[in-house]
Recover the amino acids of this structure.
């Protein structure tokens, strides 16, 4: 048991207590951040004359050798250390002796762990942003190819009006774009450096916190040392943003599962992204989409968990906060995996265009347009609604579509109908006429696609 605080104790820690308290099994994940933070701290201490240049160099070299040895597997991070901070410091002292004992001057593990977690989270946010951008690029590619691919749009999972595949994918583009913006926002708000806050009350050394912050790429130091060591708001914000990403992925998964069903057959999930059944030879299951939908609960769990952990903690640092790590790591890993897999599944998925068009034709998705036709010929909308209702009833009875009715049949229900009704209610017309910005008409869609392209160029 290697720990940093034996001095005032007269007894060994009970083994169970030690294990319960230790965090090395999971905080070893940020050994690099711990070393990076320590290097910046030491550079600052030397600049302020608190360490000599020689001590600084010894420590920097020692830290770098630890980093390299961990990376190439020569040095293993074992559970004999309480946490990653103890591991780095103990190994440094082993390697360089007395100078190593000065590393922790003007620092506490409280500001150290606050820094490590921020450094780790910051780089993960960047990685997550990259994965969201990959998803956006894939969606945009599908949109560009499908501004004229007609499919039914649904409300209440009932066929409603014709839209295009580009339009449907465009809805997801909006969602993931907001996710991207949220991540960017969180990064901006969290990018202040807690190091130099000490245990809670700053230190008596003449630290240059602005310099440390600058070395580590922060916008500046945090402004209250108590808040610095006990702030986990940025993790709550991140868990919330990740929950929203998962909610979007889960809705998308649900649609893919429905679209891939034998009844819909709108899409074919590629074999490489499907799985079979151990008993039913005909099965090709959408397991990836189902797993993404399922893992959503786990990320929501992380959000609820950290909110609950933080709610009763008095200022400043309390050990409860060690509980932030496992769940945040798990949520980040989960979301990264889901984003990458979903994008891959989307990129290899085939859209069954004929089937989508067919489905559109046989669901009265052009009924609103038939009513609009009557309105354009002077019939008040409420009356038009009633007339088209009768047409639909007639068609249901005959098992035909509105397009299959003869003009005589139309005229029997309303004399206002003329030959041009067929053009007015063709699926193409229904879509093409909807060109207000945000609507599925190809003209409107192309304008939106140009805006999306400009957004992605900035990413
Ligand atoms: N393992 C701790 C954590 O994750 C590090 C900080 C410990 N500080 C302390 N005073 N015990 O929060």
């Amino acid at each position: 048991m290697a720990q940093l605080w034996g001095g005032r104790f007269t007894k060994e820690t009970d083994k169970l207590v030690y294990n319960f308290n230790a965090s090395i099994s999971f905080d070893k994940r940020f050994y690099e951040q711990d070393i990076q933070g320590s290097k910046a701290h030491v550079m600052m201490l030397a600049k302020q004359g608190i360490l000599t240049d020689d001590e600084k160099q010894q420590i920097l070299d020692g830290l770098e050798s630890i980093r390299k040895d961990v990376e190439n597997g020569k040095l293993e991070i074992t559970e004999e250390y309480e946490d990653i901070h103890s591991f780095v410091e103990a190994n440094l002292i082993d390697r360089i002796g007395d100078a190593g004992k000065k590393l922790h001057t003007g620092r506490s593990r409280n500001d150290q762990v606050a820094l490590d977690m921020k450094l780790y989270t910051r780089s993960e946010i960047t990685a997550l942003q990259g994965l969201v951008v990959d998803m956006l690029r894939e969606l945009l590619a599908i949109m560009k190819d499908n501004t004229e691919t007609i499919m039914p749009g649904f409300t209440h999972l009932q066929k409603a009006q014709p839209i295009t595949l580009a339009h449907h994918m465009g809805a997801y583009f909006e969602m993931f774009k907001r996710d991207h913006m949220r991540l960017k926002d969180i990064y901006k708000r969290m990018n202040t450096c807690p190091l130099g806050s000490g245990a809670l009350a700053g230190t008596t050394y003449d630290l240059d916190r602005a310099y440390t912050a600058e070395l580590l790429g922060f916008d500046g130091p945090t402004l209250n040392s108590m808040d610095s060591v006990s702030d986990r708001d940025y993790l709550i914000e991140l868990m919330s943003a990740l929950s929203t990403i998962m909610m979007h992925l889960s809705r998308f998964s649900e649609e893919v599962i429905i679209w891939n069903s034998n009844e819909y057959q709108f899409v074919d999930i590629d074999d490489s992204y499907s799985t079979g059944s151990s008993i039913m030879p005909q099965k090709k299951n959408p397991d990836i989409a189902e797993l993404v939908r399922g893992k959503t609960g786990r990320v929501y769990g992380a959000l609820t968990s950290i909110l609950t952990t933080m709610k009763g903690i008095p200022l400043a640092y309390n050990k409860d906060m060690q509980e932030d790590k496992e769940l945040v790591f798990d949520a980040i890993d989960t979301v990264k995996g889901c984003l990458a897999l979903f994008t891959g599944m989307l990129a290899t998925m085939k859209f069954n265009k004929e089937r989508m068009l067919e489905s559109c034709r046989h669901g009265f998705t052009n009924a609103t347009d038939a009513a609009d036709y009557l309105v354009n010929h002077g019939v008040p909308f409420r009356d038009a609604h009633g007339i088209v209702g009768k047409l639909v009833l007639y068609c249901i009875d005959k098992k035909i579509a509105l397009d299959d009715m003869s003009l005589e049949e139309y005229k029997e229900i309303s004399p206002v109908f003329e030959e041009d009704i067929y053009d007015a209610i063709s699926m193409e017309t229904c879509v093409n006429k909807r060109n207000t910005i945000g609507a599925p008409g190809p003209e409107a869609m192309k304008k939106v696609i140009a805006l999306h392209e400009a957004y992605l160029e900035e990413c």
Residues 359-457 form a domain with the Ribonucleotide Reductase Protein R1; domain 1 fold (CATH 1.10.40.30).
